[in-house]
């Protein structure tokens, strides 16, 4: 029983340290406004290594560097727009987790809807083709035999 308890405790400790790995302890000297801006910015910027995570969620070295860069720029008095502009200039629109709608990012915004429409068209065409497929024609001998059986059944009912 003691071994099981020790194992479960060790498992809890290992998983708890992994969950906190992406959290940076940033000290803004008690300035709550800077902390709030920092957290807002790091959740708006995409990790260029992980691509599906913000830099706040990522453990990648690049994400750590970007968080540090955001923190340093905030401490230097840069505005949120200046920080985003710096990141955009350096890494392009992809660094924003929600890129702006413009000619270069239109495929990112309408691409999923275009693919959905194409998929729906393919499904409709396939369903219609299946509905229009003709049943194989009955052979002449089978048709004559069916007619004879129906005639025999009709005579039996009349009798």
Structure description:
Helices cover 65% and strands 0% of the residues. It contains six helices and no strands. It has helices spanning 2-19, 32-44, 61-75, 80-91, 106-132, 140-158. Helix 2 runs antiparallel to helix 3 (61-75). The longest helix is centred in the last third of the chain and has 27 residues, at 106-132. The chain is elongated, with a radius of gyration of 33 Å. Residues 17-23 have low confidence and may be disordered.
What's the layout of helices and strands?
Elements: H1 2-19, H2 32-44, H3 61-75, H4 80-91, H5 106-132, H6 140-158
Summarize it:
With 159 residues, this protein is an all-alpha fold. It contains 6 helices and no strands. The protein folds into 2 domains: 2-95, Cytochrome C biogenesis protein (Helicase, Ruva Protein, domain 3, Orthogonal Bundle), CATH 1.10.8.640; 106-158, no CATH class.
Compute the number of helices.
Answer: 6
Bulk shape: elongated
CATH superfamily of the largest domain: Cytochrome C biogenesis protein
- Count the beta strands: 0
Largest sheet: none
Q: Could you say what the CATH topology of the largest domain is called?
A: Helicase, Ruva Protein, domain 3
Radius of gyration (CA) equals 33 Å
Which regions have little confidence, pLDDT < 50, spanning 5+ residues?
Answer: 17-23
CATH architectural name of the largest domain: Orthogonal Bundle
Residues in helix, %: 55-70%
Order of helices and strands: HHHHHH
Span from first to last CA? 87 Å
Number of structurally distinct domains: 2
């Amino acid at each position: 029983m003691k071994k099981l308890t020790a194992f479960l405790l060790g498992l809890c400790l290992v998983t708890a340290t992994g969950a906190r790995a992406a959290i940076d302890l940033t000290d803004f000297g008690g300035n709550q406004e800077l902390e709030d801006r920092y957290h807002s910015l790091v959740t708006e910027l995409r990790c260029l290594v992980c691509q599906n995570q913000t830099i706040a969620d990522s453990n990648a070295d690049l994400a750590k560097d970007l968080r540090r860069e955001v923190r340093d720029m905030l401490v230097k008095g840069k505005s949120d727009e200046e920080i985003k502009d710096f990141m955009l200039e350096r890494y392009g629109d992809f660094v924003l987790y929600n890129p702006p709608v413009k000619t270069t990012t239109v495929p990112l915004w309408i691409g999923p809807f275009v693919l959905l429409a194409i998929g729906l068209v393919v499904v409709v065409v396939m369903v219609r083709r299946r509905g229009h497929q003709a049943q194989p024609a009955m052979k002449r001998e089978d048709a004559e035999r069916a007619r004879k059986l129906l005639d025999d059944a009709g005579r039996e009912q009349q009798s």
